[in-house]
Amino acid sequence: MAGNSYGTLYRITTFGESHGAALGGIIDGCPPGVAIDLLAIEHEMSRRKPGQSAIVTQRKEPDAVQFLSGIFEGKTTGTPIGFIIPNTNQKSDDYSHIKDNYRPSHADYVYDQKYGVRDYRGGGRSSARETASRVVAGAIAKQFLPNIKINAYVSSVGPLFVEKPYQDLDFSKIESNPVRCPDEEMAAKMEEYIRDIRKQGDTVGGTITCVIQNVPVGLGEPVFDKLHAELGKAMLSINAVKGFEFGSGFCGAKMKGSEHNDLYNADGTTKTNLSGGIQGGISNGMDIYFRVAFKPVATIMQKQETIDKDGNFVDMTGKGRHDPCVVPRAVPIVEAMAAIVLADFYLINKMYQ
Fold first, then answer.
1. For labelling, which of 22, 143, 268, 294 has a CA lying 20 to 30 Å from the CA of 129?
2. How many angstroms separate the Cα of 187 from the Cα of each of 6, 183, 201?
3. Is the pTM of this model over 0.85?
């Protein structure tokens, strides 16, 4: 299986399965001498881990990171940073009913067809639990990105949308509710909606908005390594992601050029920011903002028709511990992938200086 690494200079390779002994990763390219705040990493992991509230999966995992290399006396050495995250709360029997059956809209069928073998316990390598390793790499990237602020939040759940622009929101309120929505009134409605969806044995999707501030001018490498292209790839690599748009996004397709152009101020900033902080694939110093769309979790607690490995139609009902809505736990994953992309381009850009 290829495709387990991301990045050019700052590079993360992940390994492990949902119900294996551990997840883990190797981070290459982290500069030496970076003071590592282990509590900050623990905080990011706690934002992603299961069992954190009543509206997410109730699998109980501490997600404690054990660093094996690359950090000495609290600072990075410049050598590969190796780490593992032990799995301590597997319930593999919850998946015995899908040993020979393929769950609708999961990776079961394609993994079996491609490799001739699959780990049916929680989806194995295809499980969103793999993203825990990405959060570690993102948490470290945040610690050497100078002055850059990355804030993601839930901007919609099902039919419920935050109508306020991000400039009118208080990002300090993102962690004040289990939905991770800074609009407290809308957050309460979203939480109630997710609870109702769970009672129905169903799931629901949503969107996450990410805002990156204090980005220097010049990050991004045309032609094929545009900053927004890499952000899009990074986001689309996250489990359950179905869409990515930055700046004006699809709404910009409805506008005239005279409406959409961002006119300059004398200092090079722009009066508007429909470009989303990126022009020609290069950051222009304005806020970078984008939205990521997540589908409903595929495992539902309702009977559905599917097929088994022999092509026979069978009935299946989901079992085990699953998120009724993945977006609250995906917020730190979106931030982590954004940090990894920016860290990579930040190091690349230093070659021009």
1. 143
2. 33, 6, 21
3. yes
DSSP state of 25: E
**Secondary structure of residue 75 in the 3-state scheme:** strand
- Segment 84-123, tens digit of pLDDT: 999 987 665 556 778 889 999 999 999 999 999 988 887 8
For residue 48, the tally of other CB atoms under 10 A from its CB is: 25
Q: What six digits make up the tokens of 175?
A: 């962690």
Q: Rounded to an integer, what distance in angstroms lies between the CA atom of residue 115 and that of residue 126?
A: 13
pLDDT tens-digit readout, 217-230: 999 999 999 999 99
DSSP one-letter string for 291-335: EEEEPPPS--SSEEEEEBTTS-EEEEE--S---S--HHHHHHHHH
Element (H, E) at 84: strand 81-86
Distances in Å between the alpha carbon of 78 and those of 70, 162, 193, 339? 7, 42, 47, 18
Termini Cα distance of the chain:
37
HSE-up of 161 (CA within 13 Å, CB side)? 6
Pairing of strands 206-213, 149-157: antiparallel
Q: 122 with 115: CB under 8 angstroms?
A: no
CA angle (317 as vertex; 313, 322 as ends), nearest 5:
135
Closest CA to 239 of 98, 104, 129: 129
